[in-house]
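Q: Predict the assembly, please.
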Amino acid sequence: MTITRRSLLKAGALAAAAAALPRPLLAQLGRHPEPLPPIEDPRLQALASRALEAARAAGASYADARLTHTCTRNFSGAGTSDAESMEVGVRALVDGYWGFASGPVWAPDELARLGREAVHQAKVNALGKPRVVELAPAPVIANGHWEMPVATDPFELSPFEVQDFLGSLSRYVRRVPDTSVTRNYAVAMVQAKAFASTEGSFCTQRRWQMSGELLIELELPKEHRKGAFAVDSLSPAGMGWELYAADRIPRVREHSLREEITRGLEALKEDLLLPVKPVDVGRYDAVFDARTVAGLVDETLGRATELDRALGYEANAGGTSYLSDPFGMVGSYQAGAPSLTLTAERSEPGAVATVKWDDEGVAPDAFTLVKDGVLIDFQTTRESAGWMKNTYTKLGRPVRSHGCAGVSSAIEAPLQQAPNLTLAAGREAHDFDALVRGMNSGIAIKGAGIDMDFQHASGLGTGQVFEVKNGKRVATIASAGFLFRATELWKALQAVGGDASLRRYGMQTAKGEPAETCYHSVTAAPVMVKALTVLDPLRKA
Amino acid sequence: MRRGDGPTRLVEGDSERILSKEECDAIVRRIIGFAKGGAETRVRLQSWWNGELRWARNRVSLASDRRDIRVEIWRTVGVGRGRVSTNQLDDASLESAVRAAERAAVLSPEVLRQPPGMPPIPRAERPKTAIWSDATYAATPETRGEVARALVAPAEAQGMLSAGYLEMRAGSLLQVSSERLVDPCGPLDTPYAKWTQAQCSMTVRDAEGTGSGWAGRSGYDWTKIGAPALAARALEKCEASRHPVTLEPGRYTVILEPQAVADLMELVVASMFRTDAEFGTGPWALVMDDVLHLWRTKLGLKVLDERITISHDPADPELGILPEPWMQPVTWFDKGVLTNLAYDREYALEKLNVNPALRGMTGYRMSGGTTSIDEMIATTTRGLLVTRFSNTRTLDSKSLLATGLTRDGLWLIEHGKITKAVKNFRFTESPLFVLNAIEQLGVPVPVFRPVKNPYEQYQPLTPAIVPPVKARDFSFTSTIDAI
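A: Predicted assembly structure:
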């Protein structure tokens, strides 16, 4: 073996592209192992049906199976590293009890074993008191295939090209004096997934996920000020390499990555040159930037409208929800001001929870969680939509899952996971600066991190806080934070930025026991709220 | 089925759920056989099995059996090293993984190999302790189902809602290098080891959502978890925590149950690094020496109450062991004096003229006293009893000032008696302040700190044996509505 970096470079792009080829894992679809075929190979349906037949024969009233093939590539200054894995999981329902079994081997006998094991897991619990599961009806997907549209598959790029691109970003930053790059890496993922159920659905999907981190520090030696910012547009996205390469990504960035770096450095410098003053505890009108609002939306209504959480299914893990009486609250609970509308979907191109079918084979719909300030719905799966049956019927709405079942790989059992969330933009074309300009006296907050409680009812935010006087940011307030109650915060909403100010961020959430991690996007605009409680979070009682 | 020469037992079903030593050795031989062009091949081979049961609203919501494999391969080509991972064990997959690692090695722009001139790590005895329990591995889905029904029943009989989680877990680990195949005990090697972990925790809430109680325990041996006692404690706490009253934020004497102590201590665990202190960051930097132009640290200084000794014995299976041949017991704080901070091998050789590194705080035992929680309550004029903390986060790395929430049971103590359930608080406090304001200490016990793999260096939750602590002037800064 005598490949060297130089010989690969000499051989040019072709050889370099060969270095990035996926590895031929094996699957057994018939009698013998063979190189793993593409996920849309029709024989996978027969493979999956082995699990379903075994589960049915063992007594399951319903069963579904997932097969996933997951490739991840990490690009960093220290080289690339690859992870590739295959997973299969089978879920079975017996008398209202769920059983699940999973493992790494795609083979007919193994799928049959997993089908039997899933039923066994369910049956031993069905011995106890009765439990009712009424799955919301879902149209059968006879044979569907979907592939996420991406402009550039990062796995088809030469790793050299990607590394050189990342290196060029670092060099681009360092042209500016007194800067340093403390983190610069990219992660690409592609996952092929097949889903089959005893109701006759079979569908396959291939989706990409791209993310990265570019953390830049700036030190102003004369002023003795130092600050850092992370490039905003690299949060997880349902995209390919275009997340880095594109000159414009709607709702993510209006210009190239280099331009974003330049603008970010200018903004940081401007912030660092402001005088610093101590916090004056009190209540202030406040403008939040889109990033902070996305975090606030996600950590309050985003988590609180998970129906399983609201009903106590997460009580022993992350906690419950302040929307504690979902059936009574839907249609009447005032979750915020009339200017607050929150919608959900899993179809927006580029968003990270976007799929054609969820992990129960349901095509997710676009739905509204909060309309004009009133709570009108929850995030659901087929089981949890069934819990809403009476409520939906009473409101004259169809009983259907919103398609929020999710797993990160077939090793995990499906849980209700967050869809993409969007805070509806305001009617006027405000952006962050315009909202600040319109403020006589108050504060402006950028890039705040949010610590919520275990009902997502109240939180502490910490980030960059600025004093605003006569429409201008005039000082940085050192060590300032804000305390809020979710419902009070959203009721204090005065203005929401316009459509052009909407920004989308990919977010990671963990849920369940054992914890399962999934990704979704949150799109939000800058907002203004009145009478926010500002304090010094470092001050003890 | 047969796939290449790979082991088939994992595939064929129930006989074994994790890889045996013989299977691991055979897989490693095959991987190393695929390497071309000499130089080092390193393999880290892991397998695991999980038997799980989750319940909510008094009914089992999911029971599962899950298994997986992780093969990590490092290949050296020239001065570069490449790493890939897979979960497939057939020849074709393993060979292509080795090739991919070789390609990644060529791509690696940095010299990742040990710089020349580093002395070899001295050979040493490995801890012989086994973190293995046959009872944990043998627990069946039937057992978990029965246990869950027994845990739920008392809560349901009282009209409460119980939610919880049971997990039995086993795994195997082998890490070897092609350069040390016969007697693998180099610095990065781990002879074959298998392990078990068990955990049980539950939350009991009343139907109106006015009270919540929690109890949990983890460890390698399922028979020591004591699930029925946990269920009783969670139910008792739920009943006693209903309809809490609002109390003014402020400074209170607190009685922290062992779980709450471990929750706070997690912030200390994350701070125990020598190089941080010498860079002037973190809580253990003392003062900049203007003559030598370096930071002096607090090593050797008394930083905590003298009743506090915090140490780690790797031979204690309750605390987990690590796959390092030089692993010796470490005392981090000796009667309140800071005695050790973790450092890596480069630091050890360069600054201390010793060879092995000193690992971070990967498990620990905190000294205690003899006062029971009941006695602590009886001797308190006014104070709060804390079950546990949630959502803790460090706000200031210098003082370890942190914020977080009380959860699942907070009570007011007046004149030696628990008088009221209290609404949860957000706190703003440093664990270092608490460990300097101790009034009484109880008997140390293992707490709920489940780990995914006891052989991993870094755990989100650090295995701990800690006492209940009564301390003065704990700072609660706001009331929260969450229950």
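The radius of gyration of chain A is 25 Å. Chain A has a mean pLDDT of 94.
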